[in-house]
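Propose amino acids for all 175 sites.
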């Protein structure tokens, strides 16, 4: 029958899809293997989790439609800085997939916008970074959400990067 060769071809194609990722993609660890010295917060039904280190101010607001707005704040040298982590519910339209209102990089001054991809078993996303004259911007996207800080000093960016770099994926057990 034609069904068995078609089924075999489908299985081979699916296996190839799982392994053909870009070699430059960053692999995100499973949360079971990631350490957290602070409070772990989850987004997108806890599939994507971040670690908020002890001592950082964190506040979560849940919207009436099921969206989550997390705000991590800190003050450095008298300046207030904020990292926003947002997840939309399933009925929302598209969420941010790239920088909206960042300054344009000026290559004459060595400014560049770096873009990388990350992957894990539960999804993938992009990581955008930009620095200009001691000011920093970063956007990390994931399915149905994003995490972002804009125009913060380097000292704040370094602390926020610890949160963003703590991203891990929590696999759901098979049915």
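Proposal:
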């Amino acid at each position: 029958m034609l069904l068995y060769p078609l089924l075999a071809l489908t299985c081979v194609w699916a296996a190839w899809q799982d392994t053909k990722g870009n070699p430059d993609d960053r692999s995100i660890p499973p949360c079971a293997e990631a350490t957290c010295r602070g409070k772990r917060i989850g987004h997108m039904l806890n599939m994507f989790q971040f670690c908020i280190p002890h001592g950082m101010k964190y506040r979560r607001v849940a919207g009436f439609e099921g969206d989550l707005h997390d705000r991590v704040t800190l003050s450095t040298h008298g300046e207030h800085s904020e990292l926003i982590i947002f997840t939309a519910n399933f009925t929302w339209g598209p969420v941010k997939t790239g920088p909206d209102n960042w300054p344009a990089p000026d290559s004459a001054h060595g400014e560049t916008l770096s873009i990388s991809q990350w992957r894990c078993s539960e999804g993938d996303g992009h990581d955008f970074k930009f620095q200009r004259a001691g000011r920093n911007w970063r956007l990390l996207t994931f399915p149905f959400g994003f995490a972002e800080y804009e125009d913060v000093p380097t000292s704040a960016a370094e602390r926020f990067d610890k949160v963003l770099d703590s991203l891990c994926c929590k696999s759901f057990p098979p049915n």
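Residues 37-93+112-175 form one domain. The CA atoms of residues 96 and 161 lie 19 Å apart.
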